[in-house]
Design brief:
Helix content: 55-70%
Shape: elongated
Radius of gyration: 63 Å
Strand order of the largest sheet: 2-3-5-1-4
Order of helices and strands: HHHEHEEHEHHEHHH
Number of strands: 5
Number of helices: 10
Distance between the termini: 263 Å
Strand content: 5-15%
Largest sheet: 5 strands, mixed
Pfam families: DUF4349
Keywords: Membrane, Transmembrane, Transmembrane helix
Length: about 350
């Protein structure tokens, strides 16, 4: 009965995967994803390297542009310095034109006038007149800048230079002329309003330009720029000082007028002419003066002849005695002089 039984069944296949089993869908997906990853990483590395190169180039180019900017900035500073210098010259020229224009409108702004005078006066007492002139100048708020005296006895002279405030110019001039007899008087006035305005404008322009250069000096970044600005400051400072000196001279000349005074010792001419009128007293004085002149002339003549008369007398007297002795006769010792012989016969 066993033989009629059904044949033995084959064993069921095992569900355990062998090493050679075919891959599952998940493993195939991982293999497909793992394949492009190295390529992507390589591409990313190439891109990063390219980005780095481009960044380095950008940095280099920015550095180059920064250097060019520095050079350009240096040139700009020098250009600004030159522009400021030319602007100063233009401003000075413009100021000159403005000053010339303002000089014609002195009625509203006031005139700047330099006044001078020369005065000659005859005085009886020269030292007292000199002291009086000094006193009047100082009393008006002025001063005596120079004083000289000269001449001989009876002909002394003095010269004084006065600087007095412009408002007191005429008063001091009249006061000095009243010290004696005025023999000459000359006055002059010079309108310097245009020159004063021109110098004032130039000073203001020079000061403004100098301040501009001083403000730019701290911003200079290169040695050439610093040297250029410092040189320009020194030159502009010298120009400003020269203009300020001229400004002070003009201000002094306008504020203080100059008077040159010549004093001569002597009586006034009118008194001399009055004393010279004819009359008994005048004739007596003239005769006495003439007698004195004659005596003076005779004394001069005697004084001039005396040095020659003494030697002539010392030589002439002995010579005459010798000649008289030689004229006597040898035998009788009678003088051969006719006058002497006549006298002897008469006796």
């Amino acid at each position: 009965m066993r033989s009629s039984s059904s044949p033995p069944r084959s064993p069921a296949p095992s569900t355990t995967a062998s090493p050679t089993a075919s891959p599952t869908p998940s493993s195939r997906t991982r293999h497909r994803l793992a394949g492009p990853v190295p390529a992507l990483l390589l591409a990313a590395g190439v891109l990063i390297g390219a980005a780095g190169c481009s960044g380095g180039g950008a940095d280099q180019s920015s550095g180059s542009s920064g250097g060019a900017g520095a050079v350009a900035g240096s040139g700009a500073v020098r250009a600004d310095a030159q522009d400021a210098a030319s602007g100063a010259d233009t401003g000075a020229d413009t100021g000159s034109g403005t000053a010339a224009g303002s000089g014609t409108d002195g009625v509203e702004t006031g005139r700047a006038v330099v006044s001078t005078a020369t005065l000659a006066v005859r005085v009886r007492d020269l030292p007292a007149a000199v002291l009086d002139v000094r006193s009047r100048a100082q009393g008006a708020g002025g001063l005596v800048t120079s004083s000289t005296t000269g001449g001989g006895a009876g002909d002394e002279t003095a010269h004084l230079t006065l600087r007095v405030p412009a408002p007191a110019f005429e008063d001091v001039l009249d006061a000095v002329a009243g010290l004696g007899q005025q023999t000459s008087r000359t006055t002059a006035s010079n309108d310097v309003s245009a020159e004063v305005a021109d110098v004032d404008s130039r000073v203001a322009s020079a000061q403004a330009v100098l301040e501009t250069f001083r403000a730019r000096l701290p911003r200079a970044t290169t040695v050439p720029d610093i040297l250029a600005i410092e040189g320009e400051i020194a030159r502009r400072q010298a120009d400003l000082e020269a203009l300020q000196a001229r400004q002070r001279v003009l201000a002094d000349q306008v504020a203080l007028s100059t008077i040159d005074v010549d004093l001569v010792r002597g009586a006034p001419l009118a008194a001399v002419r009055a004393e010279a009128q004819p009359g008994f007293r005048g004739g007596l004085e003239a005769g006495w003066h003439a007698l004195g002149e004659v005596g003076r002339v005779l004394s001069v003549v005697v004084g001039a002849v005396l040095p020659f008369a003494l030697p002539l007398a010392l030589v002439g007297v002995p010579l005459r005695v010798l000649v008289r002795r030689r004229r006597r006769r040898p035998g009788g010792g009678v003088d051969t002089d006719p006058a002497a012989g006549g006298a002897a016969s008469a006796g």
